[in-house]
């Protein structure tokens, strides 16, 4: 079974459990190879916190492979970033693929409950319909528009009902340095000699992956202190903005960094966008609960863009 044997991330080392500054929980990270997983491993290494980072099967994690994995390894906590790209970066995801991921998350929640494992499960602003202009809090009722948001909402409900020791983290617009992600696709369009558009009335919280990793690690460190802070939390980068304004800032930073002649996006109304039926127009998340519970303050997304773009160009 070489495809599912856990491999230890370089930062994972044996810790003295009597040291109050060390992480006591054994952390398993599903999705250590994607952009958010890599950011979490990098940040953990800086604080001497390691992760069991199992190598996924060739076809990806499914219910049966997850069952075997957790039966054999029994970690204290699972951070489920296994489907990060499809949930947060892919342009579209087909229904059959999402259905398989739903079944896997359902099984994962059952396994975590059975083995008394803490489950940290990411989710998204996409669980809301975007019909209201004010920021969404954790108390607002989800009404997802598209199939991705609907699948995430069903997974959230299953996790809540099945695994009481859970943390659901809903993120804003996640931005990473992958060539195939939303940032990569955007920068590719800026290099073409043709006009392209972004909505000037669609709002959200840009959230660089390094910041999202900081939030995940901060939550884990407090849960490691036996604080029973289960539930659903929102996090998005400081300063909500429109997709057009975000694109203009990215182009300006990318020009300065790369020296390339990049095209600026043009304004377009949300209502005429091809993805208007799936993407919430108003996706701003209120982050007061995570601040009051964990003391996690939102950070400005603009400050993280140069580092993110530098990594992107190094990849290219």
Could you describe the 3D structure shown?
With 316 residues, this protein is α/β, with parallel strands linked by helices. It has a domain at 6-175 and 207-239 and 285-300: NAD(P)-binding Rossmann-like Domain (Rossmann fold, 3-Layer(aba) Sandwich), CATH 3.40.50.720. It has ten helices and 14 strands. The protein has helices at residues 35-46, 63-73, 84-88, 95-115, 147-162, 182-190, 209-223, 243-258, 288-294, 301-315; strands at 6-8, 27-30, 52-54, 77-80, 118-124, 166-171, 173-175, 197-199, 203-204, 206-208, 231-235, 241-242, 266-268, 282-283.
Q: What is this structure's SSE topology?
A:
Blueprint: E1 6-8, E2 27-30, H1 35-46, E3 52-54, H2 63-73, E4 77-80, H3 84-88, H4 95-115, E5 118-124, H5 147-162, E6 166-171, E7 173-175, H6 182-190, E8 197-199, E9 203-204, E10 206-208, H7 209-223, E11 231-235, E12 241-242, H8 243-258, E13 266-268, E14 282-283, H9 288-294, H10 301-315
Parallel strand pairs: 2-4, 4-5, 5-6, 6-11, 7-10, 8-13, 9-14
Antiparallel strand pairs: 1-3, 9-12
């Amino acid at each position: 079974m070489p495809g599912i044997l856990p491999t230890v991330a370089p930062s994972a080392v044996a810790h003295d459990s009597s040291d109050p500054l060390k992480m006591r929980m054994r952390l398993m990270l599903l999705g250590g190879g994607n952009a958010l997983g890599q950011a979490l491993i990098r940040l953990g290494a800086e604080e001497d916190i390691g992760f069991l980072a199992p190598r996924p099967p060739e076809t990806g994690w499914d219910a049966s492979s997850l069952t075997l994995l957790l039966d054999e390894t029994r970690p204290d906590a699972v951070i489920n970033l296994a489907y990060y790209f499809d949930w947060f970066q892919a342009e579209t995801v087909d229904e059959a693929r999402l259905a398989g991921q739903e079944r896997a998350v359902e099984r994962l929640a059952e396994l975590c409950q059975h083995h008394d494992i803490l489950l940290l499960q990411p989710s998204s602003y996409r669980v809301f319909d975007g019909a209201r202009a004010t920021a969404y809090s954790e108390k607002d009722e989800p009404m997802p528009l598209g199939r991705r948001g609907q699948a995430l909402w069903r997974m959230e409900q299953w996790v809540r009902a099945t695994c009481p020791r859970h943390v659901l983290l809903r993120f804003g617009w996640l931005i990473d340095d992958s060539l195939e992600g939303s940032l990569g696709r955007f920068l590719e369009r800026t290099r073409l000699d043709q006009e392209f558009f972004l909505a000037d009335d669609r709002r959200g919280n840009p959230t660089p992956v390094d910041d999202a990793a900081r939030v995940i690690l901060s939550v884990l460190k407090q849960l490691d202190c036996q604080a029973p802070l289960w539930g659903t939390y929102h996090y998005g980068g400081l300063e909500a903005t429109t997709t057009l304004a975000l694109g203009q800032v990215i182009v300006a930073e990318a020009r300065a960094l790369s020296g390339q002649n990049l095209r600026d996006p043009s304004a377009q109304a949300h209502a005429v966008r091809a993805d208007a039926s799936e993407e919430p127009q108003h996706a701003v998340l209120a982050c007061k609960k995570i601040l009051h519970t964990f003391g996690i303050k939102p950070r400005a997304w603009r400050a993280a863009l140069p580092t993110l773009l530098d990594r992107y160009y190094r990849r290219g």
